[in-house]
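G.,

No rush on this.
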Amino acid sequence: MAGAVKKSLASGRDRRYLACMSTPPPFIACGMYAFTPELRSAWDALLRQYHDVAGLAGDPPPVEFDTDESMLRDPAMLFGHTCGYPLMTRLRDAVTPVCVPEFDVPGCEDHLYASRFVVPAESGIDSLGDCQGQVVAVNTVDSNSGMNVLRYALAKIGARAPWFEQVELTGGHRYSLEAVAAGRAQLAAIDCVSYQLVMDIAPHLAGAVRTIAFSRRSPGLPLVIPARHTDDFDRNGFTADLNLALAALAPGQRASLHIRRFRPVDLADYEIILQMEQFAIERGYAQLK
């Protein structure tokens, strides 16, 4: 790993933070949009290309396709991928955002993304107001795209708890989509990137759900590094290397990821997430229920 640092510095890329990662062996945490074998393979290929483009010596570090917070707090994590809501509420002491993928899917604009508010295709639901007293499917309670933006949108229309008959925690956007498609839930907020990735592998779901609106946009899911290495990290160089790696990826793999490019971000970009949370709290809808 020391050789990797020297080679990286010699090429003009400051990677001094790698010098701290020799023991235990470093790894990359990348589970947010890698929920199928095909997507995991494409992300793995991209990250291997990054290792080559950056001129790092030795074998590429292993990729852990896991979204557990403990992975992002592990001292051996080289960099990882997380949601903006836990970043701002629990992880800002542990990690720093450095860049974000821009996606070529409906609902995304530059580095911003939105959630689709989806309902059963054959239902008579046309607005969030029509969902009062229904069942809502939520991937996790700490999701910006599945919970926070929906809470904000409901607060905007004056919702007061309890708004729903039941909140069903599904564990993932795909499972939320399946719950709505099967009629077990009448509403879900689905990250527009996850929606597209699910439809790529399960197109039959497209006919079973209907989008009634998009949420307010916020910055997409960032790649993060350990906060203790922030001062030693060249986010522009890292982002440039990722974009070169993306360009070198096999066309089929790049198409499956739907990534247009990466762009640098910092923590201040994600303040809008806390602003949406505070808006809901101030209007008496602090919890989605």
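When you get to it, here's the other one too:
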Amino acid sequence: MVASKRALTLGAAALCCASALFAAACGGGSSTGTIPNNPPPTATPPAPSPTPSISAGADTIVTSQGAIIGLDDQFTPADGDTANPSAGHGQPVDGITCDTTMSGNYHIHVYLGIYVNGTRYAMPDTVGMLNPVAEPAGGFTDGAQCFYWVHTHDASGIVHVETPNAGGAPVTASIMNLKNVLDVWGIAANTTHVGQFSGPVAVFTSGQVYRGSSNNGLVSSTMYTQYNGDLNTIPLFSHEVIWLLVGPTFPASLPNVMFYPQF
């Protein structure tokens, strides 16, 4: 980490900003990239995920810009994309380009939570950002040389999906999947590992939960169901919650998730 992070709070969000050298994530812009074409995998389907005994949680994760949700700095590197040459280092990944500005034409938030042997790990900051600025005191990094269409600004678990050209798709549609996030990040995941962490992998997802719906940003753990297909093909919907659980020890329950109101 470039600077220390603050604990999970409901502090005010950092505003999008731009400079001559570093562009803001929320400004207008254009791209020559195209919407990723994600054909179904042709390899032999993976074995079904284990079926852990997990109940709905009573606690609620309240996301906020700059929050740290889970044990931080557990991945290698602690923040940003990995050294994998196919990860996001400025070149297109899965047809996703790294653009100096991000448009609001299509902007959704997805929550990606990860447990390793029953301990919640925080999603790294600045995944999908090339040469991000030093992390500000508020923990929400909003400046970089360029931004991939899937990226994280902080360790809250919120993955931003922002595309300047969504092909006319509304925000209630899914135009990317989990593999796009993992590929930009530079890690792989299947039934036996998530990145550097090995063990039986179970996946739970809330499915389609659109922003602006009657849930008012709260995704209840009662909505989670186990996903037994190829986790890479999970479509990303607005306000969807995805949990990747790496065993052999699984958490006893999964929490509710409250999205902050921006998107």
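The chain is about 5% helix and 25% strand. Residues 1-32 have pLDDT under 50 and may be disordered.

Enjoy the weekend,
O.
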